């Protein structure tokens, strides 16, 4: 709650809205206690007094009634009606939406078509019709405004519920023996409630306006009772001669609706989980760089990551995702990077081309050298020219990396044309050739497919084709086969293997699968808690692992052909990288750990190309 | 008496009837299949995405009504697809441990639901039962008052397993229980499951796409392809001596340390289209041994000796 308020008041406009609204609310709450004149007592002799006249700070209306008193009482009524209408509409609409969304099928169809019919009428006409049927009066206006807004809530909440009803925890609740009513009340409702509140906070303003509209037309509050709409309506005839009678309630309506809308938007932004995680704060085009340490000297590798440090600064916390990683590849070489989730392998890969989202990501040290040139801190345009052209990426899920509304051929052509000036026809021919290169059958017809028309394996081939489009020197593949079936994975791996042998591509292959590393990679680096703990030729690392973590991780993975067996598990969990222990990060889970392991930094050492970061390695390297 | 017996169980998802013309035949997600699981056995179910594994699992726990066929648990037929009725006999552990827990409920509320709804236990009995279960899945009781987002994947999956155990079921369906977990945690959960099975005398149906995992935990394995059983056999021999060419393709595709990288399948093979299924064997389009017979006639599941059955007109020999 405190965090929510803090977030809300960081938004200046929302804070302003909250202050104005609070002031109005306090005023109308204490209205009965204030020494005001009777809002309904007429004095025709004093009609149309100007504001600031004696005894009438805001003047009087056409019957000589005190405007200040009428304004405060009217605001009180308008707010009460608006909020009551919002509550009624939210309750009924949400109930309809949840029921339709949860049961689905025919129930959903019947309910939602009914709601659609309600929406087919212009809302003011519908409200007029309801009031005409029930007769004028504030209560009937309230019913009309609430009824008109029911579809808005029903549709919103139904959409959210449909998404939630398919979630596994609803299935789990059914398996736990819960009935429909209980599931709706205890499983769905708590998850839908924030959305209802958001929808309500953004519509209260509307409802106040609509009630005022009906009163303006004489269908809401009846004389002599004052609400903001009827005050405006009564002042209409004197709009030119005595403008203050309409300006006063007009300003009040403006202030109320404006402050509610600003506050409502603020509430929505503060409650929305996506906004809270900063997803909509626009990331800069390259990762921020803030290097304090010295920049390592150039080497003759094709791509060299040197002492790279990447951190995430979230609030007061510093997540050291990558803590000094050095890797290098030569042309035609495949380097495997293996690690569990949170080990920093993906952040390392994204740091190469400055693709880590900033904020919160910051590169705080080291260098990434492509053909000797340091890429970190280079201007965006230089980096953009190299992205996809010299260094290309293949990501895990091709469905989420491809644009769903463009044909794959167009996307391939775009990838080429953003780096090379060629005609559309040539780009299309090149796209077809690329699809053939990645062995997509019927490339000429497949080029016009949308991503959703292809199978997962086909999409990943397109992903690879896109990476190959500009004949890069280096491809960074981040778990490219994890989402694929084994038979498809085998095809993709052999495709990547052929490509690097035929074209001399350097591949950095990120994975958590030892089998894949063993089959594809020449060298492998094992990462744990943001650092490399062991590296070397694949056969040597997998055959005789030197770091206890590597050895035990390999033992965890069942191997096909081993039969039924007890697996060797590693107890405990990987450390969180915002609070790393001094020394070896694995020491708390390691059965060989001694005091020295946690005393100070452990260096990565050994005879090249083998190296291990351990004081008591399993094998001498 | 087998713990679970399935006879001709099938599920067809109807397709929308077009405005004009007759309704299309529907997608046959699970074709009629029959198998038995003995008490105390772990039956592995492997297959690639879209083979009907999850549809099968959801039918077995009553979340989905079968189009035809029957399910028997310990000799009792379960004809009504009512999860509350199924819940006491058969439970489900979900693939994604986080999304199977309501983000706005404490773990205690999650754990209490099956005890209250299925077994009608009173407050003190519930508390002691929860402590018992938490001890057996190695979770600390202080976790009970926390919310799901505070847990790592491995811990959340233990909570999912604890919830399934709370219903005191005879059979647990494990739907890819470790594929969302890191390898080091995966082994912890697999070993825990093996221990619980011995402790409570459970029967498991273990669904996964990972051949090495399924081989390590199962007694027998069923291989599914395109909604049908293509091979059943003992875990230790089915991948070493596959009779069905698809099982062999799976076994050859799995990345294994020390085996050179090969693409075991010819390029350009297309998967069968569920909206327009082939008339004969669904695998014929990808199979190097396919003949005209395969393309015309659906093969039946036949005994291949050594407790192995395969649905193939031209089974592989040793």
Automatic annotation (TrEMBL), chain A:
Parts of the chain that traverse the membrane: 12-34, 77-103, 115-135, 188-209, 246-264
Pfam families in UniProt: ABC_tran, BPD_transp_1, oligo_HPY
SUPFAM superfamilies: MetI-like, P-loop containing nucleoside triphosphate hydrolases
InterPro entries in alphabetical order: AAA+_ATPase, ABC_Ni/Peptide_Import, ABC_transporter-like_ATP-bd, ABC_transporter-like_CS, MetI-like, MetI-like_sf, Oligopep_ABC_C, P-loop_NTPase
Annotated CDD domains: ABC_NikE_OppD_transporters, TM_PBP2
Span of domain ABC transmembrane type-1: 75-264
PANTHER family: DIPEPTIDE TRANSPORT ATP-BINDING PROTEIN DPPD (PTHR43297:SF2), OLIGOPEPTIDE TRANSPORT ATP-BINDING PROTEIN APPD (PTHR43297)
NCBIfam families in alphabetical order: oligo_HPY
Designated name of the protein: Oligopeptide transport ATP-binding protein OppD
Gene: oppD_4
From TrEMBL, chain B:
The UniProt record lists the keyword Ribosomal protein: no
Subcellular localization: Cell inner membrane
Membrane-topology annotation of the record: Peripheral membrane protein
All residue ranges annotated as the ABC transporter domain in the record: 4-251
Pfam family, one: oligo_HPY
Predominant subcellular localization, coarse grouping: membrane
Gene Ontology molecular functions: ATP binding; ATP hydrolysis activity
Keywords carried by this UniProt record: ATP-binding, Nucleotide-binding, Transport
One BP annotation, GO: peptide transport
Stored SMART domains: AAA
CDD domains, A to Z: ABC_NikE_OppD_transporters (cd03257)
Coiled-coil region list: none
Xref: InterPro entries: AAA+_ATPase, ABC_transp_ATP-bind, ABC_transporter-like_ATP-bd, ABC_transporter-like_CS, Oligopep_ABC_C, P-loop_NTPase
Record-level GO cellular component terms: plasma membrane
PANTHER family for the chain: D,D-DIPEPTIDE TRANSPORT ATP-BINDING PROTEIN DDPF-RELATED, TRANSPORT ATP-BINDING PROTEIN
Protein family: Belongs to the ABC transporter superfamily.
Protein name: Putative D,D-dipeptide transport ATP-binding protein DdpF
Organism: Roseovarius aestuarii
Gene: ddpF_2
């Amino acid at each position: 709650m405190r965090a929510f308020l803090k977030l809300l008041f960081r938004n200046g406009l929302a804070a302003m809205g909250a202050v104005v609204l609070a002031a109005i609310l306090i005023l109308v709450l204490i209205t009965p206690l204030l020494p005001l004149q009777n809002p309904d007592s007429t004095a025709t002799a004093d009609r149309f007094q100007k504001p600031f006249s004696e005894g009438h700070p805001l003047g009087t209306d056409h019957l000589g009634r005190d405007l200040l008193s009428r304004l405060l009482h009217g605001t009180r009524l308008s707010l009460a009606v608006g909020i009551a209408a919002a509550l009624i509409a939210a309750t009924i609409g949400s109930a309809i939406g949840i029921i339709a969304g949860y049961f689905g099928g025919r129930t959903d169809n019947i309910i939602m078509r009914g709601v659609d019919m309600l929406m087919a009428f212009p809302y003011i006409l519908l409200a007029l019709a309801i009031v005409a049927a029930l007769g004028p009066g504030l209560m009937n206006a309230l019913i009309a405004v609430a009824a008109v807004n029911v579809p808005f809530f029903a549709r919103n909440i139904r959409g959210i519920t449909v998404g939630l009803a398919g979630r596994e925890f609803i299935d789990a609740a059914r398996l736990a023996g819960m009935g429909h009513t209980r599931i709706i009340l205890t499983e769905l409702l708590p998850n839908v409630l924030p959305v209802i509140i958001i929808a309500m906070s953004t519509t209260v303003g509307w409802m106040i306006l609509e009630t005022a509209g009906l009163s303006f037309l004489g269908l809401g509050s009846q004389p002599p009772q004052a609400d903001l709409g009827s005050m405006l309506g009564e002042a209409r005839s004197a709009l030119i001669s005595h403008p203050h009678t309409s300006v006063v309630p007009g300003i009040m309506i403006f202030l109320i609706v404006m402050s509610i809308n600003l506050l409502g938007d603020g509430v929505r932004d503060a409650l929305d989980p996506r906004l809270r995680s900063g997803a909509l704060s626009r990331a800069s085009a390259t990762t921020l760089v803030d290097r304090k340490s010295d920049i390592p000297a150039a080497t003759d590798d094709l791509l060299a990551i040197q002492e790279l440090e990447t951190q995430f600064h979230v609030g007061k916390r510093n997540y050291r995702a990558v803590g000094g990683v050095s890797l290098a590849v030569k042309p035609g070489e495949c380097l495997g990077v293996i690690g569990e989730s949170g080990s920093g392998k993906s952040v390392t890969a994204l740091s190469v081309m400055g693709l880590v989202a900033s904020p919160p990501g910051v590169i705080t040290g080291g260098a990434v050298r492509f053909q000797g040139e340091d890429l970190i801190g280079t201007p965006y345009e230089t980096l953009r020219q190299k992205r996809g052209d010299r260094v290309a990426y293949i990501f895990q899920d091709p469905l989420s990396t491809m644009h769903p509304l463009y044909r794959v051929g167009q996307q391939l052509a775009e990838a080429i044309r953003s780096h090379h000036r060629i005609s559309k026809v040539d780009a299309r021919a090149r796209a077809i050739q690329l699809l053939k290169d990645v062995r997509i059958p019927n490339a000429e017809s497949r080029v016009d497919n949308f991503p959703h028309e292809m199978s997962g394996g086909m999409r990943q081939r397109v992903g690879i084709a896109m990476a190959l489009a500009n004949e890069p020197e280096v491809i960074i593949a981040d778990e490219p086969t994890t989402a694929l079936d084994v038979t498809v994975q085998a095809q993709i791996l052999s495709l990547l293997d052929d490509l690097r042998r035929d074209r001399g591509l350097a591949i950095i292959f990120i994975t958590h699968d030892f089998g894949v590393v063993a089959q594809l990679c020449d060298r492998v680096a094992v990462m744990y808690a943001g650092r490399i703990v062991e590296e070397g030729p694949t056969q040597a690392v997998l055959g005789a692992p030197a770091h206890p973590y590597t050895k035990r991780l390999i033992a965890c993975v069942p191997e096909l052909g081993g039969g039924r067996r007890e697996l060797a598990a590693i107890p405990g969990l990987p450390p969180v990288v915002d609070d790393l222990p001094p020394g070896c990060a694995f020491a708390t889970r390691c059965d060989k750990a001694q005091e020295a392991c946690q005393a100070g930094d452990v260096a990565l050492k050994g005879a090249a190309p083998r190296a291990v970061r351990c004081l008591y390695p399993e094998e001498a390297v | 008496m087998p713990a679970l017996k399935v006879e001709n169980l099938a599920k067809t998802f109807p397709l929308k009837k077009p405005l004009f013309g007759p309704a299309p035949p529907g997608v046959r997600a699970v074709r009629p299949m029959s198998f038995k699981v003995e008490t105390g056995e772990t039956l592995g179910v492997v297959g690639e995405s879209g083979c009907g594994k999850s549809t099968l699992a959801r039918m077995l726990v009553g979340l989905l009504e079968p189009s035809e066929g029957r399910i028997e648990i310990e000799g009792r037929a379960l004809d009504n697809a009512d999860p509350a009725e199924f819940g006491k006999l058969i439970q489900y552990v979900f693939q994604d441990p986080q999304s199977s827990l309501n983000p706005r409920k404490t773990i205690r509320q999650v754990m209490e639901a099956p005890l209250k709804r299925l077994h009608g236990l009173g407050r003190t009995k519930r508390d002691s039962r929860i402590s018992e279960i938490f001890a057996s899945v190695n979770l600390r009781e202080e976790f009970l008052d926390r919310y799901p987002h505070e847990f790592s994947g491995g811990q959340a999956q233990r909570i999912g397993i604890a919830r399934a155990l709370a219903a005191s079921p005879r059979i647990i369906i494990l739907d890819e229980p470790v594929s969302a977990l890191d390898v080091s945690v995966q082994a912890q959960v697999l070993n825990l499951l093996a221990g619980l099975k011995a402790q409570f005398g459970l029967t498991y149906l273990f669904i996964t796409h990972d051949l090495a995992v399924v081989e390590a935990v199962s007694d027998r394995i069923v291989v599914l392809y395109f909604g049908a059983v293509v091979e059943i056999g003992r875990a230790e021999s089915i991948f070493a001596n596959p009779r069905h060419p698809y099982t062999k393709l799976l076994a050859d595709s799995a990345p294994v340390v020390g085996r050179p990288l090969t693409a075991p399948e010819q390029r350009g093979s297309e998967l069968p289209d569920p909206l327009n299924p082939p008339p004969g064997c669904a695998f014929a389009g990808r199979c190097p041994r396919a003949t005209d017979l395969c393309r015309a006639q659906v093969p039946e599941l036949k005994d291949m000796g050594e407790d192995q059955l395969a649905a193939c007109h031209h089974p592989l020999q040793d």
